[in-house]
Design brief:
The complex is a heterodimer. Chain A is α/β, with parallel strands linked by helices. Chain A has helices at residues 8-11, 13-25, 42-56, 70-83, 92-108, 148-158, 198-208, 229-240, 260-270, 287-296, 311-318, 331-334, 347-359, 361-378, 381-394, and strands at residues 30-35, 60-65, 115-119, 134-138, 163-166, 178-181, 216-220, 246-251, 277-281, 299-302, 323-326, 342-344, 401-403. Chain A has two domains: 4-185 and 381-394, Rossmann fold (3-Layer(aba) Sandwich), CATH 3.40.50.2000; 198-378, Rossmann fold (3-Layer(aba) Sandwich). In chain A, the strands form two sheets. Chain A has a six-stranded parallel β-sheet, covered by helices on one side. In chain A, strands 9-8-7-10-11-12 form a six-stranded parallel β-sheet, with helices on both faces. In chain A, α11 (311-318) links the parallel β10 (299-302) and β11. Chain A is globular, with a radius of gyration of 21 Å. The model of chain B has no long low-confidence stretch (mean pLDDT 87). Classes of the chains: A alpha/beta, B alpha+beta. β13 (401-403) of chain A pairs parallel with β2 of chain B, so a sheet runs across the interface.
């Protein structure tokens, strides 16, 4: 388990001292997080790191996962897509089944806590069973253009919370409750982000048969239409007409995402016959591999069509890599165009900037350096822990200036 | 016997108001109606989030007017408001409204931003905490100032003055009470909006050390 002191060389002693001061103010409270998957996906990843750190700061934080069958997760996947603005047919019986699974979970879950921190839409209806405590709903997904019917359904539950937490300003809605902005974060000491030796990086490349004799372009993401892996293949193919390079598309699947296999098959078909394209479907415990692939890359892409926040961008920036990403969701918070990375809006624009960066390595290096400093100041887990502690404290205080 | 200086820190939690603006008129209405905390947030956010990048304070209103509406002159006017001379948030709000009102009376039409580039009004809740850092003399003061977080520096230089309604920054106030009027005056005269926070820290530490040695 990572000790909180281990972050001191990265963020400074004063930052760690402030976390301890905040933790002292929450001593004795019981805080429960609830989400829908224990492995895979950004939410589980954050909670896995966050809960032990909160514990070291003296905060009694727990984590529960709601249980659901395949039918429930097919429905919540439709919710997920619809909230990202994708048209989905959701039937009344789907909504009823969704509520029924939430009811079943509420009946078996201990909800007698001081603060309930509920993540994403899957467990949102647990609020129906509120008996006490303060309830915060944490939305991790891109809410800028939600399907109105699904949002109207969920809003009935969200508005019963004491507050809601969003990852980007454009996700805020007209709600009668306090809305908090908290960006997610990466952990610089996790296997996915810690420093690796050249030997470790090369060992991973050798295992996958990737050569180091030509530039490597990489996108790390789940195989999901919203991450546009097919667009990435097209952008690579446009670049390949002029520059010899390799493409690595690597990612896993989450237990609450039944669509992944289909997307993977389509990507494999689009890249069929090209020995320089590496499509890697990685198991959940592949953090070191992802770390090595990012570190080996010359350019990292995140060509998402929608994005909650796009933590893979911060991961790559932290490794000092030049990143080309779509200007969606929380990505513009992480990248200032031409300063700490490149923001694009199309396949052609992505291809154009890949070529530019591969042929201007000094500029690419500068983008990476700036990106790393931006991540150090704004997107590391210590900032995230601090804001969660503040959000919990905010539930107990009134006014805009609070003396603790 | 003067009391020691206790360093405090301040930590912000950002709130989303769910209110947007698409043109100058909507921005004007928003600035007029949102809370003082929102005005404070939009005019001081950059200092913290980009404190290592830009010394200048491109406040959110000015940045959006220039970038999303492409009204560079108006953006420059909003960016160049001399924040250090304005003691209250209400004064800042009035100054922005005055500039925007003048623009609106001079222009028949001002365009809207593109979809996705709307101005999102936000606010912040500020938590003030005592730290373990304290100083009883100039030497200790300089040593502690080198160790505290930028949040602490920020609190004593900006927040105490503008947000809590004090007419001078905390450091100058304490130094005055300690009898170091000229040093207090020199720190009060610094324009903290035109320097990065780390640069500001170095400058104050140097002033204090110089005074201590003389």
């Amino acid at each position: 388990m990572t000790k909180i002191e281990e972050y001191t060389p990265i963020v400074g002693q004063a930052v760690i001292d402030e976390l301890r001061l905040l933790g002292e103010r929450l001593a004795g409270r019981r805080i429960k997080n609830v989400n829908s998957t224990a492995v895979g996906g950004g939410v589980a990843e954050i909670l896995m790191r966050m809960i032990p750190l909160l514990g070291q700061l003296g905060v009694n934080a727990e984590w529960d996962v709601i249980r659901g069958d395949d039918h429930f997760f097919v429905i919540t996947k439709k919710f997920h897509n619809a909230l990202h603005g994708v048209h989905e047919q959701i039937l009344d019986e789907d909504l009823a089944y969704f509520l029924e699974i939430n009811r079943q979970n509420a009946s078996t879950m201990d909800l007698d806590c001081d603060i309930l921190f509920i993540h994403d839409p899957q467990p949102v209806a647990l609020i129906e069973h509120k008996r006490g405590g303060r309830w915060l709903w944490r939305c991790h997904i891109d809410f800028s253009r939600p399907d109105e019917r699904v949002w109207a359904f969920l809003k009935g539950y969200v508005s019963r919370y004491d507050g809601a937490v969003f990852s980007a300003p454009s996700f805020a809605r007209m709600l009668g409750i306090r809305q908090i902005l908290i960006s997610p974060s990466i952990d610089p000491l996790s296997n996915k982000n810690r420093e690796l030796s050249d030997e470790q990086v090369n060992e991973v490349l050798d295992r996958f048969g990737i050569q180091r004799d030509k530039p490597i372009i990489t996108q790390i993401s789940r195989f999901d239409y919203l991450k546009d892996p097919l667009g990435v293949v097209k952008a690579y193919q446009l670049v390949k007409e002029h520059l010899d390079c390799q493409l690595v598309l690597a990612g896993g699947g989450a237990t609450d995402d039944p669509e992944g296999a289909q997307v993977l098959a389509e990507v494999q078909q689009a890249a069929a016959g090209d020995p320089d394209v590496f499509i890697l479907f990685l198991p959940p415990a592949s953090d070191l591999e992802i770390n090595a692939l990012q570190r080996a890359s010359d350019v990292v892409l995140q060509k998402s069509l929608r994005e909650g926040f796009g933590l893979t961008v911060s991961e790559a920036l932290w490794k000092g890599k030049p990143v080309i990403a779509s200007a969606v969701g929380g990505i513009p918070l992480q990248i200032a165009h031409k300063y700490s990375g490149i923001l694009t809006h199309s396949v052609e624009g992505t291809a154009y900037w890949i070529k530019q960066l591969l042929q201007a390595p000094d500029f690419a290096r500068k983008l990476g350096q700036n990106g790393r400093e931006h991540v150090r100041n704004n997107f590391l887990i210590t900032r995230h822990v601090r804001e969660y502690l503040l959000a919990f404290l905010a539930m107990e205080h009134r006014g805009d200036v609070i003396q603790l | 016997m003067s009391s020691p200086f206790h360093f405090k820190t301040r930590l912000n939690l950002v709130e989303l108001l769910g209110r947007t603006a698409r043109d100058v008129t909507e921005l004007y209405d928003g600035i007029r109606e949102v809370s003082g905390s929102s005005i404070y947030y939009h005019t001081h956010r950059f200092l913290q989030q980009h404190h290592y990048l830009y010394p200048e304070p491109p406040n959110d209103f000015a940045f959006w007017i220039s970038q999303a509406l492409r009204l560079e002159k108006l953006g420059e006017q909003l960016a160049s408001v001399d924040t250090i001379k304005l003691v209250r948030i209400g004064d800042l709000r009035d100054r922005y409204l005055e500039i925007l009102r003048f623009f609106l009376t001079q222009q028949e039409l001002s365009g809207r931003c593109q979809t996705g580039e709307e101005f999102h009004f936000m606010s912040c809740r500020t938590f003030i905490l005592p730290t373990h850092h304290r100083a009883e003399n100039l030497r200790e003061f300089a040593a502690q100032l080198e160790q505290v977080s930028v949040d602490s520096l920020y609190f004593h230089m900006f927040e105490a003055r503008l947000r809590l309604g004090q007419d001078i920054n905390d450091f100058s106030r304490w130094l005055s009470v300690m009898g170091y009027e000229s040093l207090a005056e020199r720190i009060a005269r610094l324009d903290p909006y035109t320097i990065t926070l780390e640069g500001l820290r170095r400058k104050i530490v140097a002033l204090v050390q110089e005074h201590d040695q003389n």
